[in-house]
Model the fold of this input.
Amino acid sequence: VQLQASGGGSVQAGGSLRLSCTISERAFSPRSMGWFRQAPGKAREFLAGIRWSDGFTYYTNSVRGRFIISREVAKNALYLQMNSLQPEDTAIYYCAPTIGSTAATSSWGQGTQVTVSS
Done:
């Protein structure tokens, strides 16, 4: 299964971006999917997850209220709407299957760069 994140870019503080993640295998039906990010010199961190079956969502405290995770099961697509972006949100963003807030993969697809300037 290949995961491809896209939609990153450069925005000013307070701006918004919408990330997309496409899942290559149509028959892939994860338990949950999530978004992660990795800033330079920092460990990869969990941001948000969504249960694939019913759309139940959960977030880490740093993005709750600013980011919204969603999915389109028919399109095998995952999204992350990011609002009120701040410079500390600058990172490479990845999507991955999850078990809770833990990535259920050791193979990360190509991420997408998000850069927020002050």
Observations:
- The chain has a mean pLDDT of 94.
- DSSP finds no helices and eleven strands in the chain.
